[in-house]
Design brief:
alpha+beta, seven-stranded mixed β-sheet, 3 helices, about 25% strand
Length: about 150
């Protein structure tokens, strides 16, 4: 009886500790990897927000709350945050927007938020940032309705 109780308790602890926190679109954590584009005739901005747990959200300048998209998974998100750190996005100074601009942003908390912005044809974005942006752009997929 004691062994069965121990086994069930251990199983319960393992299962509950593996659960990833799922955030509501109106209560996102402060740590985020954000990317997107904006400008043009309308000045509209489309941004995507990646969370450490793998959740992905989309927001436009015309919507208040982000919309949840298909998750990319915790492991993939972890790799992307690590890559953003390796690219030193949090400390890189490159703000050269054009009429249409692109950006990658790392936000660690409400006070620590840094964005790399490009689009001006006279100022080429570093190749490693452009490659990272192209990788990020392939991620957003609509959330399948149940």
């Amino acid at each position: 009886m004691t062994r069965a109780f121990l086994f069930i308790s251990l199983f319960f602890i393992l299962v509950t500790s593996c659960n990833t926190i799922k955030y509501a679109s109106d209560k996102l954590p402060e740590k985020q990897l954000v990317f997107g584009e904006g400008g043009g005739f309308s000045g509209a901005v489309q941004e995507f927000i990646i969370l450490e747990n793998g959740q992905l959200f989309s927001r436009t300048s015309f919507t208040e709350a982000p919309t949840e998209m298909k998750s990319i998974g915790k492991a993939k998100a972890k790799k992307l945050f690590k890559k953003a750190d390796l690219l030193n996005i949090a400390k890189r100074d490159f703000i050269e927007p054009g009429d249409i601009y692109f950006f990658v942003q790392i936000q660690n908390d409400a006070k620590s938020n840094h964005r790399v912005v490009w689009g001006d044809a006279n100022h080429k974005v570093p190749e490693d940032i452009e490659a990272f942006y192209q990788e990020l752009k392939k991620l957003p997929k609509p959330l399948k309705k149940k």
